[in-house]
């Protein structure tokens, strides 16, 4: 039985029918995985350590504060490009921090 996944892109939702169970299960779990939680927590803590508000960081991306709020609450996933850009804006090394996160991301 196929699953239907919902992906939010900006203000629109996209509904996809998964071709098989394995693909659907993989996608569903990554948003709520320990690895994603650790990534979100890292970004929040680094932003706060830098003394930056959500509004300040979001403005650097041409976004509203709610964009970062959704990211930091785990409501939306962070892609690698956003992670690298966030590290530049906030002021930490994406490479060094990702090395620390990889063992958590690969945990089963």
Order of helices and strands: EEHHHHHH
Structural class: mainly alpha
Largest sheet: 2 strands, antiparallel
Ends distance: 24 Å
Shape assignment: globular
Give the rounded overall mean pLDDT: 80
Description:
- By secondary structure, the protein is mostly helical.
- Helices cover 61% and strands 11% of the residues.
- The chain contains six helices and two strands.
- It is globular and about 35 Å long.
- The two termini are 24 Å apart.
Question: Could you give a quick summary of the protein structure above?
Answer:
With 108 residues, the chain is mainly alpha-helical.
Tag the structure with descriptive keywords.
single chain; 108 residues; mainly alpha; two-stranded antiparallel sheet; 6 helices; globular; disordered N terminus
Topology, element by element:
Layout: E1 4-9, E2 12-17, H1 21-31, H2 34-49, H3 54-60, H4 65-72, H5 80-90, H6 94-106
Antiparallel strand pairs: 1-2
Helix pairs in contact: 2-6, 3-4
